[in-house]
Write a structure and sequence with these properties.
The chain has 260 residues and is an alpha+beta fold. It has 2 domains: 99 residues, 2-Layer Sandwich (60s Ribosomal Protein L30, Chain: A); 136 residues, PurM-like C-terminal domain (Phosphoribosyl-aminoimidazole Synthetase, Chain A, domain 2, Alpha-Beta Complex). It contains 7 helices and 11 strands. A 7-stranded mixed beta sheet has the order 6-8-5-9-7-10-11, with helices on both faces. It has a 4-stranded mixed beta sheet with strand order 1-4-2-3, with helices on one face. Helix 3 packs across helix 4. The radius of gyration is 18 Å and the shape is globular. The protein starts with a strand and ends in a 10-residue tail after the last strand. The model has no long low-confidence stretch (mean pLDDT 96). It is an enzyme of class 2 (transferase). GO terms for molecular function: ATP binding; magnesium ion binding; thiamine-phosphate kinase activity. Belongs to the thiamine-monophosphate kinase family.
Length: 260
């Protein structure tokens, strides 16, 4: 089995004036379920820790739980239990469990010669955050991408069958997260900037390379793998010092840092 955990803090990971409780619940579940799938496992259960101020409306909590339930149902997982405490702000801690049918997919399996491919949206959630920060609510599709990520669970679950050598979900930014695969595998990942899919906005490349919380899957596959249409090749792994380049150069700063 595999296990993963994430903590969401009000004002840091979500805002109640930006997102309804149902969407916050789906987001809290999705980011953990995506982590399970990224390890090559089938999600089975969630354990939820919830801290809320005492004046919180019960209907708000019920809608939050409905969102977590419905997101879990997407992969036939269930909420198995948890705990609730009094807190000065809303805090949601989710632990997800998953069952393995074989060895786990880790970040350490990429080999020189592998192709790097992504499946799912990149940069859409960050584009939505930047719209909301400017007081905008349109385009609605980008705002919704921040409120409720849509990990491509089915495609992710098939990655092992396709021969994936390493995989993760993009939560902190594509360049930053692929850096974890590069470091763990001891390879250099070379991306083609034009091949990376982004949102329909002028600054699409920056958002696609550094925006997080879409929970797309990024994986490495043997070069000869025939990938289905939902997987888009964006680069390759080569021998060399560990790191990530875009069009032959280090991209620079970008991605999510909890302490900045």
């Amino acid at each position: 089995m595999v296990a993963t955990t994430d903590v969401l803090v009000e004002g840091r990971h979500f805002r109640r004036d930006w997102s309804p409780p149902y969407d916050i619940g789906r987001k809290a579940a999705a980011q953990n379920l995506a982590d399970v799938v990224a390890m090559g496992a089938r999600p089975t259960a969630l354990l939820v820790g919830l801290g809320v101020p005492p004046e919180t409306d019960v209907a708000w909590v019920e809608a939050l739980c409905d969102g977590m339930r419905d997101e879990s149902a997407e992969v036939e997982a269930s909420i198995a239990g948890g705990d609730i405490v009094r807190s000065d702000t809303v805090l949601i801690s989710v632990t997800a469990l998953g069952a393995l049918d074989g060895p786990p997919l880790t970040r350490a399996g990429a080999r020189p010669g592998d192709v790097v491919a992504v499946c799912g949206r990149l940069g859409h959630a960050q584009a939505g955050v930047e719209l909301l920060e400017r007081g905008l609510r349109e385009p609605a599709g980008l705002v919704d991408a921040h409120r409720r990520p849509r990990p491509p669970y089915t495609a992710g679950l098939r990655a092992r069958e396709l021969g994936a050598t390493a995989m993760l979900d993009v939560s902190d930014g594509l360049v930053q997260d692929l850096g974890h695969i590069a470091d763990a595998s001891g390879v250099r990942i070379e991306l083609s900037g034009d091949a990376v899919p982004g949102p329909p906005v002028p600054d699409a490349r920056r958002l696609a390379l550094t925006g997080g919380e879409d929970h797309a899957f990024a994986a490495t596959f043997p070069q000869e793998t025939a990938l289905p249409a939902e997987w888009q090749v964006i680069g390759r792994a080569v021998a060399g010092p560990a790191g990530v380049t875009v069009d032959g150069r280090p991209y620079g700063a970008g991605g999510w840092d909890h302490f900045l």
